[in-house]
Write a structure and sequence with these properties.
Layout (H helix, E strand, L loop, with lengths): L6 H13 L19 E3 L5 E10 L2 E5 L6 E4 L23 H11 L4 E4 L5 H4 L2 H10 L4 E4 L2 H7 L1 H6 L4 H4 L12 E4 L2 E7 L11 E7 L2 E5 L9 H8 L3 E5 L9 H11 L3 E5 L12 H12 L4 E2 L7 E7 L4
Parallel strand pairs: 1-14, 4-5, 5-6, 10-11, 11-12, 12-13
Antiparallel strand pairs: 2-3, 2-14, 3-4, 7-8, 8-9, 9-10
Helix pairs in contact: 1-8, 1-9, 2-4, 8-9, 9-10
């Protein structure tokens, strides 16, 4: 009898039919550490510019170059502890609700959409204060997340923050459930599963986000799971942004690289690390890059630094 497959080997076999051929055919992994003026070119195909700014932990923003719309994945910003381990001072515009609101208003976006993956503190920590501050300043802000969390679980907190959930939550307050869609001002967001827990007991989730001509898989907090190969088949994301910090909470760098292979993304960014003592520290990015070179050769990896805006040039897929 042969030895049982290791966890990684099992998922490698599970992914082979659905996603092994979906990653680019090159043999190197390109990486760039973000900086305010950096750009990262895709490996092949028509490239579309997309801005990303990592706020630390699993929180980041996405926007086209003209800021016509800004998508925030989760909302833990001024209380975010993801800068200290990198030896970076938090930028002034990320230091308070008032400062952040002024920063967003100065960019004059047509809309801000906050996609909430789940209700743990390092994702929802500044959520209600953020929504209240932006809407109170006249910013067109909407939010979306798993439907029962939005229309049942968080309703008392929306009301306590003087927010009308029927107005601020997309789909007239309903949010989205697995396979569901919400669209607003040129952004399309679909909900996909995440293998994780939540404080209120509603399903944790990831997102497929179409913004600025790029399709992004935002994993949220999750472990790797076999049906990630269906994400490749069904959605064909161009860019995967994945939790990778391991420790007590999510998949680690090796499994995150495998997840990116399974979803078929040609470019990838690791997040959700170095923000608390129970996850992998700043070395996690390099560990992910090494794992990607072994597990998904040809996939381009971009490593970010908290607070810095990076412009990616993402090779897009015809669908």
């Amino acid at each position: 009898m042969s030895d049982p497959l290791s966890r990684g080997e099992f998922f490698q076999v599970s992914a082979a039919a659905g996603a092994a051929g979906a990653v680019g055919s090159g043999t190197t992994v390109g990486t760039t550490a973000g900086s305010p003026s950096s750009t990262v070119a895709g490996a092949a195909g028509p490239a579309v510019p997309l801005k990303i700014r990592w706020y630390g932990g699993g929180v980041y923003e996405l926007s086209p170059p003209n800021d016509s719309v800004i998508v925030l994945v989760d909302a833990w910003i001024w209380n975010n502890t993801g800068f200290k381990a990198f030896g970076i001072d938090k930028p002034a515009e990320l230091s308070s609700a008032a400062a952040y609101t002024a920063y967003i208003k100065a960019r004059n976006p047509g809309a801000v959409v906050v996609a909430l993956t789940h209700d743990h503190g390092d994702h929802i920590g500044d959520y209600f204060e953020l929504l209240g501050a932006l809407s109170g300043a006249g910013v067109d802000v909407k939010t979306v997340g798993q439907s029962d969390m939005m229309r049942v679980g968080l309703v008392p907190k929306f009301k306590a923050a003087n927010l009308d959930e029927a107005q601020i939550v997309l789909n007239n307050g309903a949010g989205i459930n697995m396979g569901g869609t919400a669209s607003y001002k040129g952004v399309k967001i679909e909900l996909v599963p995440a293998v994780h827990s939540t404080a209120l007991g509603y399903p944790a989730a990831g997102f497929i986000i179409d913004v600025g001509g790029v399709r992004v898989y935002a994993s949220g907090d999750t472990d790797v799971y076999g049906d990630m190969s269906l994400i490749a088949m069904r959605y064909k994301p161009d860019l995967a942004i994945v939790s990778s910090g391991n420790g007590a909470f999510t998949m680690g760098p090796d499994d995150a690289a495998l997840a990116c292979k399974m979803v078929g993304a040609g470019q990838a960014i690791p997040v959700h690390y170095a923000h608390n003592p129970l996850v992998v520290g700043t070395q996690c990015g390099d560990l992910f890059r090494t794992a990607a070179g072994r597990i998904a050769p040809g996939m381009q990896v971009t490593l970010l630094r908290p607070g810095e805006m990076t412009t990616l040039h993402v090779a897009t897929t015809q669908r």
